[in-house]
Amino acid sequence: MAKKSTETLVGVFVLLGIIALAFLALKAANLASFSAAKTYTVRARFDNIGGLKKNAPVRSAGVSVGQVTSITLDKNTYQGLVIMKINESVQFPVDSSAKILTAGLLGDQYVGIEPGADDKNLANNDLIKQTQSAVVLENLIGQLIFNKAADAGSGSTPAPAPGPSLAPAPAASAVVSGSKK
Amino acid sequence: MRQRETPYAPTPDRIQKGPGSDADAPEPPTRVPPQRPEAGLNSDTFIQIDHVTFGYDASRTILNDVSMQFARGKVTAILGGSGCGKTTLLRLIGGVYKPQQGRVIFDGTEIDTRDRDQLYAIRRRLGMLFQFGALFTDLSVYENVAFPLREHMSLTETMIRDIVLMKLNAVGLRGAAQLRISEVSGGMARRIALARAVALDPEVIMYDEPFAGLDPISMGVTANLIRRLNDTTGATSLMVSHDVQECFAIADYAYLMMPGGIVVAHGKPEELSQSTDPQVRQFIRGEPDGPIKFHYPAPPFAEALGLPQ
Amino acid sequence: MIALVNSLGQATIRAFTALGHAAYFFLDLLRYTPSSLRRFGLVVDQIHAIGYRSLTIILASGFAVGCVLALQMYYALVPFGAAESLGLVVNLSLVRELGPVVTALLFAGRAGTALTAEIGLMKAGEQLSAMELMAVDPRSRVLAPRFLAGIVSMPILAVLYSAIGILGAWLIAVQLIGVDPANFWSIMQSKVDVTRDIGNGIVKSFVFGVICTGVALYQGYETQATPEGVAYATTRTVVFSSLAVLAMDFILTAMMFSTS
Fold first, then answer.
1. Quick check: C166 and A21 CB within 8 A?
2. DSSP alpha helices (H): ranges in B1-85?
């Protein structure tokens, strides 16, 4: 019962809506990147995941190769278990290492993968054995003060600065990555 | 007691209705305040209002123990001033409301307002002309008349067109078929509404104030249409009005109601014109003062002006 | 004093009765909506009246708000050296919040009042009674198509609002202010998630569509059949729709965008 002109205009209206939605999804959001690519799952355990969030990118040499799909606490080892999906076109050797890095000085955190040298590659659901946790600001400050005190105190070789991964994991690392939220 | 009404399918035979086909009409009520109607009109009651009391809410009673009978194939007028419940009566017949007391009986079956199928079947046989037409403003004249045809029957466009043009022709507005509702005058709107009301050839046509606000020519046209429609289709017509002259010209029987929802008189128009009942006389002759007082109840005038009694 | 408490109690009872009445009405609308798909021509007519006719104000408003957002956010971000994130900020503001909410408020004002007035006048002109006496349920033929049209139109309008807002922001940011165009889009693309942001925005606008259309139809259907009654009803449509939209926005935002 609708007139021809009415139907046409409604069609135009709906079409405009679809175009706008497509514009938003493709040009203004991240639809174009990950939808079609096939991925495989890789796991890693960290002592401290810092400010890493779900859907954070996984990068190698700075190039985006995957996404973090879930972050949970591993109840057996009390470490943070990060599960990520990586594009199938990119393969990493089994002895690759994963680090939690920060984009820029105060940016979001992401997982950086450095490839190892093994012949075999990571298969689906494999575990990355070598990991380096996020930098925790309090520990850094603590080390700085400790070193300064050691320097001033003894004058002998300063104690080797323990790597960030050996430091016990205090809670609030939100300071490092909290600015952008 | 209440029978299921089967869905009604329109057939050509129905247009010629003779008396005597209504074998299961209920007995007329024995307790009737005014005189009983004559046997000739009584034998074929199509719609009966049986001691109905109704009010929209508990405080106001619109209809007070009203009993009426509408004979098949006849034009019956319901006269009365404003506020005596005439329009409410039509709505009760249409099953819109349920009376607090009493029954409304449609073609031998009591109307149950909760039974949607029965209501649907009854309303298919009913056509109502509203006071100002109640045409659908978003449709054209043609579409308005075609509305009941489209909703209740599956006809081809050609058949719909034929019927719509026939109905519009019967009311003299075939040339106005393509106008929009905003473009038609009041009198035309009522005629279009009439065409729409009879689109499905209903057995009962109800007119709510068909003459209100019309010029003399339009009034004559409308009265003519009502009578002719009734005679050619054999439908039962109910007219609610306060225009005594026009109603008496075309009605076979009339009921007179007073504010408070009571029937004070009924009979053939000739009988009512010669009635000696003061209420009837005041209404029929249009006398300003009588049983219905001119003055709204008030204390004496001298007292209001502060003059000594 | 007793009289005050008494009238308070009565007012509360009236409010709850009205709420219950409205709830029944909503359920009825939902019940009749599938059948209105059979009268699809009516639905198309209504999408034209409700959705298409709102385009002008939605597009104009979206564009203007996008431009203003770009300007305002630029001045706010510059002290942090984060002017390059202008696109991202504008996008998120529009897609998550302003798009659905402002569209809903404008919709309530433009299309909602039109619906209320139309239905109220149909009721005053006895059109709904006439339909009922012709054994056609007015809820199925008049209300349900308009409801369906409303809940279809609202997400479309919200998406259009956001899209044209971003375009307006782009115009101001890149052409006028001089933000780097590549950064404008790339930072936006990297941080805006389709399901989370755009998807939730659409869900919000859908809910707002249900609210605004439902309230408008209810007020029209229940109005007193007088000029004052219709005027009062249109005011109530705008007020109730707006309040309900803002309240639901808070609830939905808390549900959807709490940091997970």
1. no
2. 39-42
